[in-house]
Specification:
elongated; mainly alpha; 54% helix
């Protein structure tokens, strides 16, 4: 009997000792981990208000980015991640750190399965300093989908609309930015303006389209002084000051040519008038009326082209047109006075010379 009691007591002592050891094990390991399940059970993720967690860092933010963008690759945070990997200049900024991108993704879609670590660690009352990491403030995914759909329903001919099918399987942030850059006063573009007014985002490709050789400058129906401008053709877009200077002289030359055509037309009219003195002016003359019609059409067409240059509303190009007309008038204006018709000389048969 005594032996049995001793065995039972010994077993109970071992069980109690083992229980105490298991209970103390997490505290012995410190606040960094309570298990090895991919960092999801880290103490500072589950209890981020502990003072020991101030300098804690999320174990695998890159893994969360892979998970999230694998499920919804059209989220703005995924666009930022792609830009960070392709743009060496932006890659070194604080907005390209893995945690900053996770913060953008999980602020946008906090209920997605890849955001558990972030939402727990950065909940109210957290002391984790990493949660204060700055991230780009981009419009949320659902807003982008709604805005693109509305814009492309109202204006389906916009080129950017072809990039986003009905299922919105596209780079939402880039397409939305291109639409609003083209016509920034459209409904739904106030958020894009607010995003790109922010100094942090202004240098990113979805705001700084002037440095992008593939994007089209916006259409503005008011006077402006930008360098990037569509001049008559899609391929004629100056992207820097040197290219704009060359375009300025080309536009001035086109206005100069308009004055030259006006001069040629008037000289031709004078010649045709002299050639037809004494003839019926209302009778069709192939050698006169056909060249006159062709000349008129060419002059009118060239004038419309110059008018389209003014309608870019670009201040620099507007003054280029005026300069071309100014020098054209200086060069040809003095020759465009109407010559008097030759007088018909008649002699009085009865007159006598003195």
């Amino acid at each position: 009997m005594t032996w049995s009691i001793c065995c039972v007591s010994l077993c109970l002592a071992l069980i109690i000792q083992g229980t105490i050891a298991v209970a103390q094990a997490p505290m012995a390991m410190g606040p960094m981990s309570m298990g090895g399940n991919g960092g999801h059970n880290d103490t500072c993720i589950l209890m981020p208000s502990m003072s020991e967690c101030a300098n804690f860092h999320m174990p695998d933010p890159r893994g969360d980015i892979t998970t999230l963008c694998g499920m919804m690759s059209n989220m703005p945070g995924c666009s930022i991640d792609n830009i960070c990997h392709s743009n060496t200049k932006l890659h070194e900024t604080e907005y390209c750190t893995d945690f900053s991108i996770v913060k953008n993704l999980c602020t946008d879609m906090p209920k997605m399965s890849g955001c558990q670590d972030y939402t727990r660690m950065c909940a109210n009352g957290t002391v984790v300093k990493e949660c204060d990491t700055p991230s780009l403030k981009t419009p949320p995914t659902m807003f982008l989908m709604s805005a693109i759909k509305k814009i492309c329903t109202d204006m389906p001919t916009m080129e950017q609309c072809s990039k986003c099918p009905d299922n919105m399987d596209c780079d939402l942030l880039v397409v939305y930015s291109e639409l609003c850059y083209s016509m920034s006063d459209m409904d739904g573009c106030a958020e894009w303006k607010a995003m790109c007014t922010n100094t942090a985002a202004s240098a990113w490709p979805f705001c700084d389209f002037a440095s992008d050789d593939t994007s089209l400058p916006p259409m503005r129906m008011w006077f402006h002084a930008d360098v990037a401008e569509i001049i008559l053709f899609r391929q004629w877009i100056p992207r820097n000051s040197l290219a704009f200077a060359g375009s300025w002289f080309a536009v001035a030359l086109m206005a100069f040519v308009a004055e030259f055509l006006r001069f040629l037309r008037q000289r031709a009219e004078q010649k045709w008038k002299f050639d037809r003195l004494g003839k019926n002016d209302t009778k069709f003359a192939f050698g006169v009326d056909v060249p006159r019609a062709l000349f008129h059409t060419a002059q009118l067409g060239w004038g419309y082209i110059v008018m389209l240059l003014v309608m870019t509303y670009n201040v620099g190009l507007f003054f280029a047109v005026l300069t071309g007309h100014l020098f054209g008038s200086l060069a040809f204006g003095r020759f465009m006075k109407a010559h008097p018709e030759p007088e018909t000389v008649t002699e009085d048969c009865c007159s006598t010379n003195p």
